[in-house]
Amino acid sequence: MFQSLENVDLKQRTGNQCTLSIDLTESYRPLKNHALVINSKSKDWFAQDTIPLRGIPYMGRYKEHEYFIYGFQKWGMTNSFLASKIIKDLYLNNDNAYLSLFSCHYYSLSYSKIYLKQMLHHLYLGYVKFHFHTKKNLQRGQGGLMKINHKLYAVYLDKQGIYHYFSPYCPHLKGLLSFDEKNQIWHCPCHQSVFDCYGKLIEGPCLKDMNKQK
């Protein structure tokens, strides 16, 4: 939950509560071991979000007593509010003009075609060209997935030239990990768990460090 304040220097903030300063256009977000302050001058902020191929988010009843919200397309503040209204009306059996539009039970194949070429291109880059490495092409400060004796590893080559080997699967729910060279982190694209380059947990939902191998 965000607390909105005016004329507050967020760099001086401490504690576990997220804070948004309207006048200074800054936000303070506490993490496990440090705080993240984001403002108009921030250069290294990145986010992972979902964009459904049907073009609009999924909001509604999936089946009895189960509700589904997914694919906010980087419009989380607006769409989460709309989703809460839809789910509330479904739970109370009230009418809502947007129920059919955001229903979870249809998929637009014709609309998804416009993303097909782009999706295949990024799948190739992410899972083939930039994903798998050999010891010969891995440079210092780089990490990636590598097959050694027919077994898959996540491998990091540190600045001193030492190789570090890990299981390539996130300890949370076994998502295949990716390495972000710029930020020197491993991250899980499934549920956004983040680990440092040596496999130490930075941010969950995972509760464990990466599994070391060898």
Protein model, in words:
The structure is a single chain. The chain is an alpha+beta fold. The protein contains two helices and 13 strands; from the N terminus they run E-E-E-E-E-E-H-H-E-E-E-E-E-E-E. It has a four-stranded mixed β-sheet with strand order 1-2-3-4, with no helix packed on it. The model is unreliable at 1-8 (pLDDT under 50).
Q: How would you concisely characterize the structure shown here?
A:
By secondary structure, the protein is of the alpha+beta class. It has helices at 76-91, 109-129, and strands at 2-5, 18-21, 26-30, 35-38, 58-63, 66-70, 142-148, 151-157, 163-166, 178-180, 185-187, 194-196, 201-203.
Layout of strands and helices, then pairs:
Elements: E1 2-5, E2 18-21, E3 26-30, E4 35-38, E5 58-63, E6 66-70, H1 76-91, H2 109-129, E7 142-148, E8 151-157, E9 163-166, E10 178-180, E11 185-187, E12 194-196, E13 201-203
Parallel strand pairs: 1-2
Antiparallel strand pairs: 2-3, 3-4, 5-6, 7-8, 8-9, 10-11, 11-12, 12-13
How far from one another are the termini? Answer: 42 Å
Got a strand count?
13
Task: Name the average pLDDT.
Answer: 79
Strand content: 25-35%
Helix content range of the residues, please?
A: 10-25%
User: Which strands sit side by side, in order, in the main sheet?
Assistant: 1-2-3-4
The CATH fourth-level homologous superfamily of the domain at 142-203: Rieske [2Fe-2S] iron-sulphur domain
Spell the H/E element sequence: EEEEEEHHEEEEEEE
CATH topology of the domain at 142-203: Rieske Iron-sulfur Protein
Overall geometry comes to: globular
Structural class: alpha+beta
**Major beta-sheet overview:** 4 strands, mixed
